[in-house]
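Meet the record:
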Amino acid sequence: MITDTTAEAEKRQNEIFARLSGDQKVRLAMEFSDTMRDIAWAGFRQRHPSVSDEMLRAIFLREIHGIELRKGSGPFGPHGD
């Protein structure tokens, strides 16, 4: 596996992680997930600067989550809610 972390740094990270409670581990995982989503979203916005936010959300949902929105359904359903 390719890594940019030294063996000593990885050992230290594992020691710290082992001391976290279950709640702390879940919170950390959620923060990582949010960060990765934000990075992916920023990349989509940069690659598609002229696309509307609504269309960009549809592309994002399709490419990241495999979700297809029906034409005219908007991001939250047929009535936009």
Summary: The mean pLDDT is 83.
